[in-house]
Design goal:
two-stranded antiparallel sheet, oxidoreductase activity, 2% strand, 47% helix, globular, 2 domains, 487 residues, mainly alpha
């Protein structure tokens, strides 16, 4: 097959028969290295395993006002471990972060497979969701294969219950959780009182997902909460950790936003007339440059909430501009052939997000934006996730990442990206070893986002190569110039 596929005409025929290249996807992007620690006997991986378990047992995923803040403990520990942190350094990180977290609180009720979608978006059920996914993980047919649970509940494709337990929806066999197991009885005509109210409530709580797009409803949640569910899931794949995987599913479930899922359906492609001619064919960096100068965004107050900007823009002009730029990044070969391979688009995302964080900071201001760093760390998570999921989902995940990065850049005031803001002479005496040391032993080594940012630079260079030391230059400058986050 590879030999035949290499012949242009025959290759196209093979692709047409097999569907191998019918959908744009990051086909040349290799899986990120896996650093399984569950069975490693050395002290360093054992330490990480114990600390991750300690965090899982003792600390809630969400905390703060309205449970709006995320537990970053696992992100910091895994990043530090991957950058060579000693057991002592990992324990210091744990001890520094733990006091900010809160214990688990009991959920109002347990969750079962007949109602697991009823409480999506409710952080009060975070404990119940983690328990539910762990119960599924422990089922005999799943046999503690965390990937099976992720494929079923997040990707909508797994069938751990066997073919006899699947249900046909729109011509496809799907797991029972993606069809109705309980059909509510609607109230009879004229029914009133308690019985009528109960029937109406039952009808409103239907457990049916008739729309194919709804099978990916949790994928729409990966970038909610500044993309923390996406980041958490990526670490689950990198560390081959069922603990992190179940936490990621729980975090994804409670950050779900029905309004967001409705407004930005996963994987929905733009129509030809959704992109103005002036934006066609532009690279992602060129789009960012246009956004910085687009006066329509002047109506957005710097420091606006990112979620509010996405869901309720302050004016129709802003709403139109957001959609135009979101649709303008060509992921389907509309304006420029991509040969059905989005690998370079992933690299483009990482290049641009790195520049958005570092090259937008005027020297001497040290004004590294807390929210913009998530564009970079989520781009790394996308790089990890895409090789692990079906190609048909790649465009949708990249769309979601760009929406988060776009809204973040607009919300923080669209600072111009200027490569000259990053001096280039300091890298001559400092290499990647220096960056790794700064991440795990500097005065900022217990700052979760500082560690994750440096780790994202390092991994991007390993993935794509580092032409003219672009990533090294940015990483060294950021490591030395950082004085805390600006929000």
């Amino acid at each position: 097959m590879p030999l035949l596929s290499s012949i242009p005409l025959v290759g196209r025929l093979v692709d047409a028969i097999t569907g191998a290249s019918s959908i744009p996807a990051a086909r040349r992007l290799k899986s990120a290295p896996v650093h399984a620690v569950e069975t490693r006997p050395e002290k360093r991986p054992r330490t990480l395993k114990h600390l991750l378990r300690g965090n899982h047992v003792n600390h809630a995923l969400m905390y703060g006002d309205d449970n709006g803040r995320h537990n970053h403990m696992a992100h910091a520990l895994c990043s530090a471990y991957l950058l060579g942190a000693t057991p002592e350094q990992m324990n210091l990180i744990y001890d520094a972060i733990a006091p900010k977290l809160v214990p688990w609180q009991a959920s109002p009720a347990e969750i079962a497979d007949v109602d697991w979608r009823d409480y999506l978006g409710d952080t009060a059920y975070q404990r119940a969701y983690v328990d539910f996914f762990e119960d599924v993980l422990a089922e005999h047919s799943v046999a503690y294969n965390w990937r099976t649970v992720v494929e079923a509940y997040l990707l909508g494709q797994g069938r751990p219950w066997g073919d006899d337990d699947t249900v046909e929806v729109d011509g496809d066999l799907v797991p029972p959780m993606f069809s109705s197991r309980v059909t509510p009885t609607a109230p009879a005509d004229g029914a009133t009182g308690a019985a009528g109210a109960a029937g109406a409530a039952g009808a409103a709580r239907t457990n049916t997902l008739p729309d194919k797009a709804d099978r990916h409803l949790l994928l729409n949640s990966l970038i909610c909460g500044l993309g923390h569910p996406l980041i958490h899931l990526a670490y689950a794949y990198e560390m081959d950790s069922r603990v992190l995987a179940m936490e990621a599913l729980g975090m994804t479930a409670v950050t779900y936003n029905a309004d967001y899922a409705k407004k930005y359906p996963f994987g929905q492609l733009p129509a030809d007339d959704d992109v103005p001619d002036a934006l066609r064919g532009l690279s992602l960096q060129q789009l960012v440059d246009r956004i910085a100068k687009d006066a329509r965004f002047d109506a957005v107050a710097p420091g606006s909430r990112i979620e509010s900007l996405i869901l309720a823009p302050p004016s129709p002009e802003v709403a139109t501009a957001l959609l135009e730029y979101w649709h303008a990044w060509d992921l389907t070969g509309r304006d420029e052939p991509v040969q059905n391979d989005l690998t370079l688009r992933v690299r483009e995302a990482q290049d641009v997000s790195a520049d958005m964080l570092v090259a937008s900071v005027v020297p001497g201001t040290h004004s590294y934006n807390f929210f913009v760093c998530h564009a970079l760390t989520t781009s790394h998570a996308v790089r990890v996730l895409l090789p692990e999921i079906p190609p048909a989902l790649h465009v949708g995940v990249l769309q979601q990442w760009w929406l988060l990065a776009l809204a973040t850049y607009v919300a923080v005031g669209r600072p111009p990206v200027d490569p000259d803001n990053v001096p280039k002479d300091h890298r001559k005496t400092k290499g990647w070893t220096y960056v790794e040391q700064q991440a795990v032993s500097s005065r900022w080594s217990t700052d979760e986002h500082y560690i994750k940012t440096l780790r994202a630079f390092i991994d991007a260079a390993r993935t794509w190569g580092d032409i003219q030391d672009r990533y090294l230059n940015a990483a060294v400058w950021f490591a030395d110039d950082f004085e805390g986050w600006v929000r």
